[in-house]
Design goal:
Helix content: under 10%
Largest sheet: 22 strands, antiparallel, barrel
Shape: globular
Structural class: mainly beta
Length: 562
C-alpha cells in the first residue's frame, strides 16, 4: 500500500487554479505547436549541500547550538527550436533564419532544511513547541519549491512583428522588477519602437512555487492580523487571527501562520514603450497596476465576542477591493563617443508611485571610459513605499540620498586590475534625528565611506586584496579581505580567503567587536559540463570563538541535440 503523505505537504505544493493559469496557458501553447522534426534542449542542474553549527544567545539562559543541514537543488531547462527550422547554434547567430521561433525556458529550485534550525523545538510558556510554529518565517527555509520562471515563447510571428510569451515571467528593469503568471505581447513598430502589453496574476509568497521575494514590499511577513470589533461602533483593534482552522502537526508548515488576505489573487496589467535597434540611445516608459479583493468576513460572524464586520475595520464603508501597486517608470541611456578613445554612457531613471503620489526611486549617473580606465559618478534617491494593503503605510518613512563615485582600471591584456569607490549618504528619517538628539555630539544623519581593491592574474594564479571603511549614522565598519586561487590543472583548482571585519555602533558604551574568517575550497571537473566543489569556512568573533561551516556543490550542464 502506498504511504500516505504527511498532512499539509500536498496543501503546500498543490497548484490552485488561479495561480496555475499562466502555466496552463503555456502548456496548451506548447502542446498545440506543430510536430518538430528536430529541437535542441539545454539542462543546467546544481546541487548544493550546506552544513553549519550556529550558536544562539538567550537571555537568562545558556546559549544553545543549532545545526543547519540545508540541501538546495536547482534545475534550469530550455528547449529551443520547437518548430525544427533552425540549426543547432542558430540562437547565438545575429542573423538567424526567417520565420517564427518557438521555445520554452524554465528555472526551478527546491530548498530543504534538515537540521534543528527549522525542525527543532523551543520552550515557550512552560511547553515545547516546534520552532517553525514559534517563528513562522522559518517555514520558507524548511521545505520550499521555487519556480523563478517557466514560460513558452513565440517570437517573430506575423512576419517578425509580434512576440508572445505565456507562463511565469520575471520582468527586471532599472528601478523595478516583478513576477507574474500570465501573457505578454510585444509588437515591433516602425521608427525603432516596440510596444508591450501584459496581463496576469501577480506572483506573491502564497502563489504556487513562489518565495516572499516575489511579494510587493511590506506584505511578505508571516505575521498577519485582523480587526476585532469592540462593543461600540468604531472601537476595537488589530489582533492576531484567532478561531479559524489551521494545519496542525505538520513539521514542514507553520501551525501559526494564517493570512487570508495573502491568499487573494492579485490581477496585474500594464504596458511599456521602448526603443530598439538604436546605437546611441535607448529608452523605456512603463506602467503597471495591481489590485486585489478583500477576503471579507473570516469564518462565522459570531466567532468572536462581538460580531465580525470583516477583515478590515468598518468594512461597510470601504470598497471590496483596492489597489496594491500602481507605478510609472522611465529610464534613458545614451552611448556617446565624443572623440578618440573616450566613450560616455549617461543614464537616468525615475519611478513614480501613483498610489502614493510621489517619486519613490530615482537614479542619475554617467560612465566615462578611456582605454582601460573608467570613472562613474552617480546619485541615487529612494523614498520607501509599500503595498497599498500593507500596515507599514501608517508609519512615517522618509527618503535618503546616496552619492558615489567609482574608478576602475581593467585592461584586457594586463595582469593587474584595481578599483576605488567613495560614497556618502544622508538619511531624512525621524529615527535618525532622534539618535542625533539622544547621543549629542558625534552623531549625525550622514554616513559615508570608501573601499578599494587590487587583483593580479598571471598564469594559473589569481590574488586579490580588498579593504573598506565606513562611519556615521548606523555605526562604524572596517575590514579587509585577502583571497587567492590556483589552477593546478585543467580539471583541478584550489582557492582560499581570509577576512577581518571590525564593527562598532558609534556611540559611547555600545558593543564593539572584531570577527575573522578563514575559508578554503577545491573545485574538480569530472567531465565536460560536470564539476564538483567543496568549501570549508571557519569564523570567530566575540560571541562564538569557533563556528565551522561546509558547503558541497555539484554542477551539471549539457546541451545535447535531438
Amino acid at each position: 500500500m502506498a504511504e500516505e503523505p504527511e498532512p499539509g505537504i500536498v496543501r503546500r505544493l498543490r497548484m490552485p487554479w488561479r495561480y496555475g493559469a499562466g502555466f496552463s496557458a503555456a502548456l496548451l501553447l506548447l502542446l498545440s505547436a506543430r510536430t518538430s522534426q528536430a529541437y535542441e534542449f539545454e539542462v543546467k542542474a546544481q546541487t548544493v549541500g550546506q552544513g553549519a553549527t550556529l550558536r544562539t544567545l538567550g537571555l537568562g539562559a545558556n546559549s544553545s547550538v543549532l545545526r543547519r543541514r540545508r540541501l538546495t537543488q536547482s534545475l534550469q531547462l530550455s528547449i529551443w527550436d520547437l518548430a525544427g527550422t533552425r540549426d543547432a547554434f542558430a540562437r547565438w547567430q545575429p542573423q538567424g533564419p526567417k520565420g517564427p521561433r518557438y521555445y520554452f525556458a524554465s528555472y526551478l529550485r527546491l530548498d530543504h532544511e534538515q537540521g534543528s534550525w527549522a525542525s527543532g523545538q523551543l520552550l515557550l510558556d512552560g511547553r515545547l513547541v516546534d520552532v517553525i510554529d514559534a517563528i513562522p518565517e522559518l517555514e520558507r527555509t524548511s521545505l520550499q519549491l521555487d519556480i523563478l520562471y517557466g514560460y513558452f515563447g513565440a517570437e517573430g510571428l506575423a512576419g517578425g512583428r509580434i512576440d508572445v510569451f505565456a507562463g511565469r515571467q520575471m520582468d527586471v528593469q532599472t528601478l523595478d522588477w516583478f513576477s507574474m503568471d500570465g501573457i505578454k505581447i510585444r509588437a515591433h513598430l516602425p521608427a525603432s519602437l516596440q510596444v508591450e502589453a501584459f496581463a496576469g496574476l501577480r506572483v506573491r509568497d502564497n502563489s504556487f512555487g513562489a518565495t516572499d521575494a516575489f511579494s510587493p514590499d511590506g506584505t511578505s511577513s508571516a505575521f498577519c492580523e485582523e480587526f476585532v470589533e469592540g462593543e461600540s461602533y468604531g472601537s476595537g483593534g488589530w489582533r492576531p487571527i484567532d478561531g479559524l482552522p489551521i494545519t496542525m502537526g505538520n513539521r514542514f508548515t507553520s501551525d501559526a501562520e494564517l493570512c487570508p488576505q495573502r491568499d487573494e489573487a492579485m490581477p496585474t496589467l500594464g504596458f511599456a514603450v521602448a526603443t530598439e535597434h538604436l546605437r546611441k540611445f535607448t529608452g523605456r516608459l512603463s506602467y503597471r497596476r495591481s489590485h486585489s479583493s478583500s477576503p471579507g468576513i473570516l469564518g462565522e460572524v459570531d466567532r468572536l465576542d462581538n460580531p465580525d464586520l470583516g477583515y478590515y475595520p468598518f468594512e461597510s464603508e470601504i470598497a471590496d477591493s483596492g489597489v496594491n501597486e500602481e507605478r510609472l517608470a522611465l529610464s534613458l541611456r545614451g552611448h556617446l563617443s565624443p572623440g578618440g578613445s573616450l566613450r560616455l554612457t549617461p543614464y537616468a531613471a525615475v519611478r513614480y508611485s501613483v498610489l502614493h503620489g510621489l517619486i519613490d526611486e530615482a537614479h542619475l549617473g554617467t560612465k566615462f571610459v578611456r582605454n582601460a580606465h573608467s570613472l562613474e559618478p552617480e546619485v541615487f534617491y529612494s523614498a520607501p513605499t509599500f503595498d497599498g494593503n500593507s500596515i507599514f503605510n501608517i508609519f512615517s518613512s522618509e527618503p535618503y540620498n546616496d552619492a558615489r563615485i567609482t574608478w576602475r582600471f581593467s585592461p584586457k591584456t594586463h595582469v593587474w586590475s584595481s578599483y576605488l569607490r567613495g560614497w556618502g549618504r544622508r538619511y531624512h528619517s525621524e529615527d535618525a534625528q532622534q539618535a542625533v538628539d539622544a547621543v549629542g555630539l558625534g552623531a549625525n544623519t550622514y554616513s559615508g565611506g570608501g573601499q578599494g581593491g587590487l587583483r593580479r592574474r598571471s598564469g594559473g594564479w589569481e590574488v586579490r586584496v580588498d579593504a573598506f571603511a565606513e562611519a556615521g549614522y548606523g555605526g562604524r565598519r572596517a575590514g579587509a579581505l585577502l583571497a587567492g586561487g590556483f589552477e593546478v590543472s585543467r580539471d583541478l583548482a584550489l582557492h582560499g580567503r581570509f577576512s577581518l571585519v571590525h564593527l562598532g555602533e558609534g556611540s559611547p558604551g555600545t558593543l564593539e567587536g572584531t570577527a575573522g574568517g578563514l575559508q578554503a575550497g577545491v573545485r574538480y571537473r569530472l567531465n565536460r559540463g560536470i564539476a564538483t566543489s567543496l568549501v570549508v569556512e571557519e569564523t570567530s568573533n566575540a560571541f562564538d570563538s569557533f563556528a565551522l561551516a561546509a558547503v558541497a556543490l555539484v554542477d551539471l550542464a549539457f546541451q545535447p541535440k535531438t
